[in-house]
Amino acid sequence: MHSVEGKRGMPSPKPPFPAVSGLWGKSTTINNVETLASVPSIILKGAAEYRSVGTENSPGTKTFAVTGCVANTGLVEVPFGTTLREIIFDIAGGVIGPDGEVDNSQFKAAQTGGPSGGCLTAEHLDLPMDFDSLRSIGAMVGSGGLVVMNKSTCMVNTARFFMQFTQNESCGKCTPCREGTKQMLALLDDICEGKGTPESVALLEETAKAVSKASLCGLGKTAPNPVLSTLRYFRDEYMAHVNNKVCPAGQCKALSKPHIDPTKCKGCTACARKCPVNAISGTVKNPHVIDQMACIGCGTCLQTCKFGAISK
Ligand code: SF4
Ligand code: SF4
Ligand code: SF4
After folding, report:
1. Does the reported pTM lie above 0.85?
2. Does ligand 3 lie within 6 Å of residue 275's CB atom?
3. Last residue of some domain: 233, 251, 269?
4. Closest ligand 3 atom to the C-alpha of 304?
5. Ligand 2 mean position, distance from CA 278 (Å)
6. Which of 174, 215, 220, 229 would staple 118 via disulfide (CB 3.0–4.6 Å)?
């Protein structure tokens, strides 16, 4: 039904006026809950009070949904312009490392803005979290999602995870998004499964740029963001997957090499002494670590550890 409600008592315009119809044929406003929640305080206290926090172009506060490898997950409301460091290290209680302990040196990346956002790295920890700053580095405020990742996270697999989501959400109306997200997902699958080549990475990047430019709506235009931002900051991880057939984080099962569970390792040093390529490091009585890039996958350490600390 085409219906445009005019002013009260006035006849509704008839086509050829644009046939726009809101809910039940009425004027309709669509806003997210966070926007509407800001309205009462602006009405009650005035715009100046609202603008007294935040930045010039991003006034007021923003609620971030902090999740992933942090001590305290949940919703945090902060003035726009608060730094990533303050949100993660102070408010969210710090980064949780693979051993389950708080260790901020384990920070690797944070994905902002939901599945279509971009990733931030340690060099962005002091970046003010506002619209302009995030846009300037190819990320976005978006939905306010903030997924924190530690050093045991594979960034290629992370891009694949988000691409799976946006591919499912693509409505299929336009070809660049409908086909492009499928192709990007297939390429990411190949890379994570050890079937990728350097050409796969080049094609992935080329496709991501094309989908971003040619898609019809915001979903398709932003769907490549996780791919492009992980390629920008973690290209070496992509290349390790395709050139060395190694997942440096040890997350991609098809490429997995043995890794040591720090909660089970007694630091007896036996594995390090047996490794033919000196890929295992650590000190006596402290958890040891396997350098995934150096490991040749011979399996000797798996048979050596008497404490069940090494697995594939
Ligand atoms: S870009 Fe938008 S319109 Fe095009 S297929 Fe994706 S979701 Fe649909
Ligand atoms: S699998 Fe072999 S090369 Fe890799 S860490 Fe164990 S002993 Fe070293
Ligand atoms: S052999 Fe096992 S317990 Fe000993 S250092 Fe290696 S992983 Fe740790």
Report:
1. no
2. no
3. 251
4. 1
5. 8
6. 229
